[in-house]
């Protein structure tokens, strides 16, 4: 996932490498994929249409990672989508199933 590369570059790379060619390419790739998601969300409430699916859990996770760890600002559409998906019981159950992710999100919220 491109967001992971951006996270690594922005948080762990030496200062001189944080805006490297690779980091810029990863950010561009993330933004291109985000454009695909936004085009879909312009027509439907969820990635796969009118129903919440595992794809929404994956996309929500990627958007939260980008926002929290890579400090990529999200727009109104993305924020509304994340609120819609992360507020669902199914999303909470998925997050509860992965203790590592749950701990990571809690650590970010504490910062």
Textual characterization of the structure:
With 111 residues, this protein is mainly α. It has one domain (2-110): Glutathione S-transferase Yfyf (Class Pi), Chain A, domain 2. The protein is built from 6 helices and no strands. Helix 1 (2-11) crosses helix 2 and helix 3 packs across helix 4.
Helices and strands, with pairings:
Layout: H1 2-11, H2 21-41, H3 54-68, H4 76-86, H5 89-97, H6 99-110
Helix pairs in contact: 1-2, 3-4
Helix and strand run: HHHHHH
- In the CATH hierarchy, the third-tier topology is known as Glutathione S-transferase Yfyf (Class Pi), Chain A, domain 2
Average pLDDT works out at: 86
Q: How does the overall form come out from the CA principal axes?
A: globular
Low-confidence stretches: none
As a percent range, the share of helical residues equals over 70%
- Strand coverage percent: under 5%
E-strand count: 0
Counting DSSP H or I runs of 4 or more residues, the number of helices is 6
Total separate domains: 1
The radius of gyration over CA amounts to 15 Å
The second-level CATH architecture is: Up-down Bundle
The rounded distance between the terminal residues' Cα atoms is 24 Å
Structural class: mainly alpha
What's the CATH class, please?
Mainly Alpha
Largest sheet: none
